[in-house]
Known about the structure:
The protein is of the alpha/beta class. It has two domains: about 200 residues, NAD(P)-binding Rossmann-like Domain (Rossmann fold), CATH 3.40.50; about 240 residues, NAD(P)-binding Rossmann-like Domain (Rossmann fold, 3-Layer(aba) Sandwich), CATH 3.40.50. About 45% of the residues lie in helices and about 15% in strands. The protein is built from 18 helices and 14 strands. The strands form three sheets. Strands 3-2-1-4-5-6 form a six-stranded parallel sheet, sandwiched between helices. Helix 15 links the parallel strand 10 and strand 11. Helix 9 packs across helix 12. The longest helix is centred in the middle third of the chain and has 32 residues. It is elongated, with a radius of gyration of 24 Å. The N and C termini lie far apart (about 60 Å). Bound molecules: uridine-5'-diphosphate-glucuronic acid (UGA). Uridine-5'-diphosphate-glucuronic acid binds next to helix 9. Pathway: Nucleotide-sugar biosynthesis; UDP-alpha-D-glucuronate biosynthesis; UDP-alpha-D-glucuronate from UDP-alpha-D-glucose: step 1/1. Keywords: NAD, Oxidoreductase. It comes from Rhodanobacter panaciterrae. Belongs to the UDP-glucose/GDP-mannose dehydrogenase family.
Amino acid sequence: xxxxxxxxxxxxxxxxxxxxxxxxxxxxxxxxxxxxxxxxxxxxxxxxxxxxxxxxxxxxxxxxxxxxxxxxxxxxxxxxxxxxxxxxxxxxxxxxxxxxxxxxxxxxxxxxxxxxxxxxxxxxxxxxxxxxxxxxxxxxxxxxxxxxxxxxxxxxxxxxxxxxxxxxxxxxxxxxxxxxxxxxxxxxxxxxxxxxxxxxxxxxxxxxxxxxxxxxxxxxxxxxxxxxxxxxxxxxxxxxxxxxxxxxxxxxxxxxxxxxxxxxxxxxxxxxxxxxxxxxxxxxxxxxxxxxxxxxxxxxxxxxxxxxxxxxxxxxxxxxxxxxxxxxxxxxxxxxxxxxxxxxxxxxxxxxxxxxxxxxxxxxxxxxxxxxxxxxxxxxxxxxxxxxxxxxxxxxxxxxxxxxxxxxxxxxxxxxxxxxxxxxxxxxxxxxxxxxxxxxxxxx
Length: 444
Ligand code: UGA
């Protein structure tokens, strides 16, 4: 059993806290948001994430997981202090470190015995040094001779599978220059390493870059496939066949080569941009990353272009049924979601939207409020009523095998705009609907 404190109860902080408590550690989660802390104490989870609520409740009831706004006792309690607060993009796309450094300062003000300070937030290369400095400045200000180490331990969880990813990580990256700190983390992560050692130990800067490199690589795969899709539809090829054709090469693999309406979420768009900014600040122009981003930006306009083409540009007064609002299935997260770009483009030309999402309706309402050109529907079939066409933006399992005859009957101008290539064009067309996919042998 180890004593752990985690600053930040967002996705990463809360999931990490719950999983470390599940392994028998005593975890205290600190957040400055009093209302959120109160809700968490009552077992109310502010986000939709499969399995998270039960693991939080179980460990809270078991006395292994506490929530507080009071930093001082939480720091005094800890052998390991995680920093898992947000790093939102600055105006120029670089990561804003003010929250990370503020927590580092707080740690320095209250630390009174050796602890390992762990950066879990996705932070630019060099942040471990800045955190070390911020802690040291505060310790020096109160003449405290307390030893500490700073470690970079980036998180690789996926929204929608976060608890599972955290309990069964592919790898545990530990960037540290102190053997004492590595020993502490080895002890903390021992339960995750039982079958084979997943810990990869390296220096702090390499660990920080590993996180960005992983996300940038995945984003690159997606933008690459979207580029192939755009070529496919011009040359009259089907990207879905091309995808299967190349995925069979184990060096390429089937994962993360699904073309679609662009990638969203809180990580890829932000991290690709931040890495590009970091490179720029060191005098290197990361041209590939710039292209990955540009392709994605363009891809997010794709569904709107297809719909506009279908209506010969006359979209005013038309109603579009939209299935899927979240940036991907199994989450209610709308950050950088492709649905937002599509809805906003449709509204800007006077079209209306009837939208359904299994989880993200509340979040959509929070973002856009009540407006005449948006109806949030309780069921997928409700969204079709009174709509002209259907656009599918998120690949929720519930959308995979719909009743095409019913869709055709409900729509005024039967057509499906399949932003995730969920359907076979022939099946949709046989049911009497026009089909538009991403890169499926159809040229605009
Ligand atoms: C991503 C990474 O996958 C995680 O490994 C990483 O830990 C996390 O960022 C992070 O940095 O915290 P996440 O943002 O939750 O996780 O979502 P993904 O499952 O990676 O999906 C991202 C976007 O790419 C979605 O919009 C999805 O629809 C899109 N996507 C994914 C495609 O368009 N095609 C694909 O083949 C795969």
